[in-house]
């Protein structure tokens, strides 16, 4: 209420009721005063008071004037006499468009969107740069990056978040890296699988709701497992056959197997890629007696949208092709105890010698001849009437030891002993005579096996018969005992038989036979393994070594006892 006092010279001014708008006049000596009601002012209460003139309402409240007083009509989210209290602290979006406001006990906090940080998300959070893959293994990936380019943004962050997710979504993991580091090793990954890798800059907050930047991303694939049990299955003069097995657990992640071969001087590899269902391959058209390097690896992820990867490099396999075998192997001058063989030297390579094998159905004898220019050889000490398989292999020295060619074969049948008829038994157990006949010009059993697919005819098993010599003679009885040196005469129907004492042979046991020792050579083969380090990887090479040993052999020598007596 406003009280105004006015002084006049007139007397009894209140009689004229000078106060307006319900004002009360008070008589004052020589003047009067008007006591104005609420909402009015002035000497005579003639002026109405505007209570909203001072804008008492806050936060956008509307002021309404009520006769000297006012009323604040508050907007949504505020209340109070002057609209001074906020019921929703996030009503006016204190975080702006860069974050999300969260009310809490009459206050608020801001959760910033990706790429922003600060109390009201007013600062930009920059991502790292230059993300790249440093190394890929079968169960891990090494990555590196650079910090944000802006120095202020670099000091703002606390570290980096590294997130890696498999393509199929079955595996997801996030690692935190301190800001002092700019590289990370992802471990315990599945081999041969593709991963999406993202790296974020991280600003840690007190409410454990960290702010992150936009990510830098890359896609990579771990290496598949290498093949297992890789082995050289077969080697010829022009082919090398290899075989392998795939890891069972990681089989699904291997799409192909890559095999390459080359000689040390070649500029390019001969490479072939095979499906994972194939486990064997043969390289053809190779040079005989040459060294080759074979590499094998597995591939994974060869689809258009799937990044490929190759397994860890294995140490190359060093393989020598076999030298060419001797050509045109023939046998001539076949006798009861020897045969002469001739052949043409291989067309390619330098031979160190030859291995000659003499095979029957009971034994194999090997003879090594260290003469690479040899083209003929006479095999001796054979048994009469015996079927033999003779083979010749060329020997070439390599870095892995001695390599031998495929054998060239020829089959022969030695003649019966000259002048000695063959003893045959009849069904009744009585001896009969097979007269001497000349051998045919060409033995039907003598042939050159140039084709290894021709089946070998089995040799006849030897008969265990007592050695008895049967002769046709004018003397048909044993009255004069024609057998010498203690031989026993056995009478027959038309002939007699001489059963000789041990150490004697001949028609009438006239030959004294004994075994004479003589020096000979025998060939033995031995396979040894030795370690070789290449590129920090240890692998084993296998050598087959032929050793020549001096030995003592025995040869039967027979002399006529009648000649000794005469001398």
Automatic annotation (TrEMBL):
Q: Which gene encodes it?
A: SNED1
Cited Pfam families: EGF (PF00008), fn3 (PF00041)
InterPro entries from the UniProt entry: EGF, EGF-like_Ca-bd_dom, EGF-type_Asp/Asn_hydroxyl_site, FN3_dom, FN3_sf, Growth_fac_rcpt_cys_sf, Ig-like_fold
**Protein name per Swiss-Prot or TrEMBL:** Sushi, nidogen and EGF like domains 1
Name the GO cellular-component terms: extracellular matrix
The intrachain disulfides are: 36-45, 74-83, 112-121, 500-509
Q: Which GO terms describe its molecular function?
A: calcium ion binding; Notch binding
Q: Which intervals hold domain EGF-like? A: 10-46, 48-84, 86-122, 474-510
Q: Which SUPFAM superfamilies match?
A: EGF/Laminin (SSF57196), Fibronectin type III (SSF49265), Growth factor receptor domain (SSF57184)
